[in-house]
Amino acid sequence: MVCLIAASQGSLPMLYVGLGIPYLFMAIGKPDLILLTAFALWWSRLIIPGVPLALNLSQLMVGLYLGSTVLRITVGQQGFRLTASKVFALLFLAVLFVTIAVRGFGLRALGGGEEGGARYIHMALALGLFFVSDWVRLSPPQWRWAIIGMVLLAIVPTLAQGLYVLSGGAVYQQFAFVGYSHALRVTALSRESAAGTQWAIVGSLGKLMFVPFILWPFKGAYRKRYLVFIAVGLFVSALSGYRTGFIGVILFLGIYFFFKMRSKLVFILGGAAMALIAAALLAAFASHLPFGVQRVLSIVPGADISYEARYSAQGTVDWRLMLWREGLRHIPEYLWIGQGFSYDAYAGSMVEAVRGYRTQHEQIMWAIAQADYHQGMISTLVTVGLFGTLSFFGILFFEFRRHYRLMRQPWSDPVLKRYHLLFFSLMCRDIIVYVLAGQAHVNMPALLFLMALLSGLAHHQPEPEEEPAPAGGDAPEEALPERLGLPGTT
After folding, report:
1. Is 50 exceeded by the pLDDT of residue 194?
2. Scanning 81, 229, 313, 383, which has the fewest C-beta atoms within 10 Å of its C-beta?
3. pTM for the structure as a whole
4. Contact (Cβ atoms closer than 8 angstroms) between residue 361 and residue 346
5. What distance in Å separates the CA atoms of residue 385 and residue 340, rounded to the nearest whole number?
């Protein structure tokens, strides 16, 4: 009935309300299915046309799950466990409330001259999922399908943007259902695309590297499959020309196998030797490689890369250094009460006007307007001030300590333990990237979401003791396809 009324009146919001009612009842009766969907859609960037506040499908599913969880808490079906990390999360939430009260919410619909309030909504959803992470309870098979879906659906943005680029911009309708980066589209169709920057769109394909980490244990014949997918992930990341992304892949591999290997010293020395040899060989023949790979290899001293690749790489370095100096100058102004996620509406219109990245000065103006300093500490201090920074890093510290201890304990389900190690390694990698080159409004919600996922996996294990148990003692590990009854496991 609601849908019919909405269709007759031409009201898109009312239509979405009508379509969402069945999912609301599903969230109450089957919250695990809603949560499974939220995790599976996390990297897909799928959206529904017309949904406000730049909410994607995964965030909408999280909102439904939070609503059903709050309802179950209200009727007394579930309780609330206050841990050290949740205390810091409450302090962080208090800082956000104070910041909103002083700086404004940033939603034009509520009045005022600020924009950017959608970021508060995104942060609230991530914080809410983290608060109820004790009730993130999926069965082992549900976790497997959620994580498989998460990795496979990660290729959707690349497919959508690839179609746009290959058509010369003629096919764009897919962006009604898939989120995109405006800067990426501009870059992919710019004059520089002839030099190879159109390969920037393949970056998200690098997540296919996680396929063997999900399906097979790292032992025996399965190690060859790991090597194939890792090589593909490294190549795709290098081809994109995105140095932070490529370094992130290296960091993840280093962290994961450091935790995985028994002999840490041998791994460190062997890995460092292999990295140096590979870097030296690639640097010597860099001029014969694609533009994106040359741009990534600009981090290797003495690499034989083209002038165009070196100029492009150095330009972003200079831009970041200028932006960091400007950010450091703003820290004293926002030390006690941060700038917040909202920004002046006039600055917002200026941001829209310069999204084509015409000059370096305009790029810096765009970044400053939204506190996007591309350096986590500066961005966080300016956005939420000193107290917000301390409280958020308190969350990170206690969650890291908890999951590090869980990672070292034996698990009854070795597949879930492998998943936990995978996402714990991603968490460690993302914290490093966030601190060195991150953005508060992007990395903070993503880390909260990741920590909620880890807490859900940890639900299948008892809480760790003060001193972690020695590694080992896990149940025999087998390949995931065999456990799911899928073919192709030999």
Report:
1. no
2. 81
3. 0.87
4. no
5. 9
